[in-house]
């Protein structure tokens, strides 16, 4: 079944109307018919099964603007979210790598993504460009959430400076930093296993050029755990996905 996201306030007893882009997708792209079923998520712990009962906004009715009306047929809890809220702090990469990172991170269960401008980032964004990039990235996050049947749409936050990201990470229970100069796989395994039992986790990933030593020292000062991901040097778009994959595997019940 196809999945769509709604606001809980849209519910009217056992019915809901969906307009805008999702209406266009349901009617004109998917060409769904009266009687077809969909899944609806309200972004928390509720998932609804609903059946299409009417297309509104035509000469056949007086629903107002174009919308599709659905009837809720079943309500159940959502078990597709990880028990911990994982925030990925991604050093902003060049090209379209950020789009790939967002898509795959959402599939792997990330809670939110923070693009971070670090010292060795090649890309330079002014406020206007950054806002447009983030808008585009949030659309990718929504699409990936639908495809992977997530219960929420992970948010891509505004682009932060490194110091801002450190402040943002202070509230997290555990911070993990994969670093090519780290060693000790037993220590890394221990940290990842311990992290899997936490309620909130931050993962800091450096850009193509890696972290500067001063950034690593500041992350250590935050209480961050510097870990190794093995003997190979991973690309920036691979490192975060590796940590997320390990944590997802350890957390899934």
Brief overview, please?
With 253 residues, this protein is an alpha/beta fold.
Largest sheet: 7 strands, parallel
Uncertain spans: none
CATH superfamily of the largest domain: SPOUT methyltransferase, trefoil knot domain
Shape: elongated
SSE topology string: EEHEEEEHEHEEHEHEHEH
The CATH topology annotation of the largest domain reads as: Alpha/beta knot
Q: Total domains, how many?
A: 2
Mean pLDDT: 91
SSE-based structural type: alpha/beta
The share of residues in helices is 25-40%
Helix count, DSSP H or I runs of 4 or more residues: 7
Notes on the protein architecture:
The protein is α/β, with parallel strands linked by helices and 253 residues long. It has 2 domains: 2-77, Hypothetical PUA domain-like, domain 1 (Ribosomal Protein L25, Chain P, Beta Barrel); 85-251, Alpha/beta knot (3-Layer(aba) Sandwich). Helices cover 34% and strands 26% of the residues. The protein has helices at 20-29, 97-107, 127-147, 162-169, 185-195, 213-221, 236-251; strands at residues 2-5, 15-18, 37-41, 46-56, 67-77, 85-91, 112-117, 155-156, 160-161, 174-178, 200-205, 225-227. The strands form 2 sheets. Strands 6, 7, 8, 9, 10, 11 and 12 form a 7-stranded parallel sheet that branches. Strands 1-3-4-5-2 form a 5-stranded mixed sheet. Helix 2 runs parallel beside helix 3 and helix 2 runs parallel beside helix 7. The longest helix is centred in the middle third of the chain and has 21 residues, at 127-147. The chain starts with a strand and ends with a helix.
